[in-house]
Amino acid sequence: MTASLLWKRIWRHKIFYLFMLPGVIWFFLFSYVPLYGIQVAFRDFRFTGGFTGSPWAGLKYFHQFFDYYQSKEIIRNTILISGMKLCIGFLTPIVLAILLNEVRNVAFKKTVQTLSYLPYFVSWVVVVTLMQRLLSQYGGPVNNFLESIGLVNEPIQFLNNTSWFYQMIIGSDIWKNIGWNSIIYIAAIAGIDQQQYEAAKIDGAGRFKQIWHITLPGIRNIAVILFILATGSLMSAGYEQLLLLNGPATASIGSVLDVHVINAGIGSGRLSYAAAVGLFQSVIALILILTVNRVARKVSDVSLF
Amino acid sequence: MKKRLISPFDVLNYIVLALLGFSMIYPFIYILVYSLNDGKDSMMGALYFFPRKFTFDNYAQVFDNPKIWAAYKITLMRTLLGTFLSVFLSTMMAYALSKKTLPGRTFFTFYIFLPTIFSAGFIPYFITLQKLHLINTFWVYVIPSLFSFMHIVIIRTFLQGIPEELEESARIDGYGDFQIFTRIILPLSGPVLATIGLFVGVAHWNDWFTGAYYVSNKDLIPVQTLLQQMLTEAEALSNAAQQASQNGGQTINVNMAGSTPESLRMALLVIAVFPILCVYPFLQRFFVKGTMIGSVKG
């Protein structure tokens, strides 16, 4: 194609470039300008100087983070919490989709499905407020119920308690997301050829064999893709939930990178330091996602890119 | 007719799923019951499915509070404006990207994809918002959430399913590109626009973070941030109420009726959740389909 031909084609599409213009500008301002601004992690950022006007500081702020007495704890907490979320939060929607698929009663299935999406549509503030009230030691229905059936003698302190913290984090995460995340698997299962099940039945395969040999392989590809996507967030444990659920009482096991960045950056105004921590987080996330993507491509021929 | 056997697996399965469904809805039922019960009475506990001392007092007091009305207005405005602009502009971009003949199509797709795998992080983003003078304005709610890679891909995939012939015949009828977009493409895209509209709308409605960290002007606080403030400062409401009553105040007066800070908080929570509960069952069939399109082929 000659240059003038290309130019002609571009000119013919001029209105479409106009359509893209707001988006192109937006992505430039809100994604690429901040990328350029990553350099504040290597500078002594002063607001008047802007991204490029402040003096270089080298790796000072990275050293500051790794010398910080709690940094190991924060990294460990982050990996622990998001690792648990990754495994449990990844498996439970698959289990739900399979269980729903085994239900023959359409009305029952529809009802459970509709109810299961509900928590996804409320904010973390609402979820944590619900938890505070339901799990309260003072007249909360959960403790009331446990006491009335004689399971506990005195109310359990579920929140702000290190021995229940992880259960609360993971439990509320599952509660909020299980239904929504199962949609995709339900769709994938619906796409499986029914003849396979018929054939398996004739061969004498029971319920579990059918699930193991037909349903699970049928959703394998989509599961791999979602797993790759999820690994990208291993260094981020979900800042909304943890900002709201973590308090002084649970700080030793509940402080995570995202919250540390927000508190140090906006709370204490240490912007360069917080940017350095955030950059560390982003780089690890990128390495993780690229690694898992490569491994997945080798092992199962499924990959994102 | 063959008798259908109900296996132990079925029984267990139905029980597990019924319990799951119950756990999804019960917290909301409980909060509704709590908010409709006399606040002081609720503190005694043993409240499960029905109000013991039924009252609308909690709601009356919440609705009497001008701060809450103002917050509701902010939430409503940002949700309507933000959703409309986001859906309209995203669809325009997705429509352009759905044109297979568009020179530079791959480049632009990559241009919007890259930030999803490597982001600058929170701080450079925050500084950018400051430099753009968005901090502490109403627009910080609307502009930074206009576009998302995922939404554009979902819409693009949908648009690619619209037959080219429709556009061809419109062109023969003398329609220009923009007219084709507004008169043919948009009307045909109802389901996907409803899906994305729901996603964006719910995100706007539920966002408390922007109000808490990017806005300090008290007049710009949305409902969810108000709820978060009550959550983090457990005593905030009662303090405010005491202060208000000391100043001959107009905010919430705890002493008058049987309401407690807790029962008022629950009433506000119901108000904050209610609109979503009303909308989402109707849009369900759209978003189930919409997410599938986007994620399977995306």
Automatic annotation (TrEMBL), chain A:
<dbReference type="GO" id="GO:0005886">
    <property type="term" value="C:plasma membrane"/>
</dbReference>
<feature type="transmembrane region" description="Helical">
    <location>
        <begin position="112"/>
        <end position="131"/>
    </location>
</feature>
<dbReference type="InterPro" id="IPR035906">
    <property type="entry name" value="MetI-like_sf"/>
</dbReference>
<feature type="domain" description="ABC transmembrane type-1">
    <location>
        <begin position="75"/>
        <end position="292"/>
    </location>
</feature>
<keyword id="KW-0813">Transport</keyword>
<dbReference type="InterPro" id="IPR050809">
    <property type="entry name" value="UgpAE/MalFG_permease"/>
</dbReference>
<keyword id="KW-1003">Cell membrane</keyword>
<dbReference type="GO" id="GO:0055085">
    <property type="term" value="P:transmembrane transport"/>
</dbReference>
<protein>
    <submittedName>
        <fullName>Sugar ABC transporter permease</fullName>
    </submittedName>
</protein>
<keyword id="KW-0812">Transmembrane</keyword>
<feature type="transmembrane region" description="Helical">
    <location>
        <begin position="219"/>
        <end position="239"/>
    </location>
</feature>
<feature type="transmembrane region" description="Helical">
    <location>
        <begin position="271"/>
        <end position="292"/>
    </location>
</feature>
<keyword id="KW-1133">Transmembrane helix</keyword>
<feature type="transmembrane region" description="Helical">
    <location>
        <begin position="15"/>
        <end position="38"/>
    </location>
</feature>
<keyword id="KW-0472">Membrane</keyword>
<dbReference type="InterPro" id="IPR000515">
    <property type="entry name" value="MetI-like"/>
</dbReference>
<dbReference type="Pfam" id="PF00528">
    <property type="entry name" value="BPD_transp_1"/>
</dbReference>
<feature type="transmembrane region" description="Helical">
    <location>
        <begin position="79"/>
        <end position="100"/>
    </location>
</feature>
<comment type="similarity">
    <text>Belongs to the binding-protein-dependent transport system permease family.</text>
</comment>
UniProtKB/TrEMBL annotation, chain B:
<feature type="transmembrane region" description="Helical">
    <location>
        <begin position="108"/>
        <end position="127"/>
    </location>
</feature>
<dbReference type="Pfam" id="PF00528">
    <property type="entry name" value="BPD_transp_1"/>
</dbReference>
<feature type="transmembrane region" description="Helical">
    <location>
        <begin position="12"/>
        <end position="33"/>
    </location>
</feature>
<keyword id="KW-1133">Transmembrane helix</keyword>
<feature type="transmembrane region" description="Helical">
    <location>
        <begin position="76"/>
        <end position="96"/>
    </location>
</feature>
<dbReference type="InterPro" id="IPR035906">
    <property type="entry name" value="MetI-like_sf"/>
</dbReference>
<feature type="domain" description="ABC transmembrane type-1">
    <location>
        <begin position="72"/>
        <end position="277"/>
    </location>
</feature>
<feature type="transmembrane region" description="Helical">
    <location>
        <begin position="264"/>
        <end position="283"/>
    </location>
</feature>
<protein>
    <submittedName>
        <fullName>Carbohydrate ABC transporter permease</fullName>
    </submittedName>
</protein>
<dbReference type="GO" id="GO:0005886">
    <property type="term" value="C:plasma membrane"/>
</dbReference>
<comment type="similarity">
    <text>Belongs to the binding-protein-dependent transport system permease family.</text>
</comment>
<keyword id="KW-0812">Transmembrane</keyword>
<keyword id="KW-0472">Membrane</keyword>
<dbReference type="GO" id="GO:0055085">
    <property type="term" value="P:transmembrane transport"/>
</dbReference>
<keyword id="KW-0813">Transport</keyword>
<dbReference type="InterPro" id="IPR000515">
    <property type="entry name" value="MetI-like"/>
</dbReference>
<keyword id="KW-1003">Cell membrane</keyword>
<feature type="transmembrane region" description="Helical">
    <location>
        <begin position="139"/>
        <end position="159"/>
    </location>
</feature>
<feature type="transmembrane region" description="Helical">
    <location>
        <begin position="180"/>
        <end position="205"/>
    </location>
</feature>
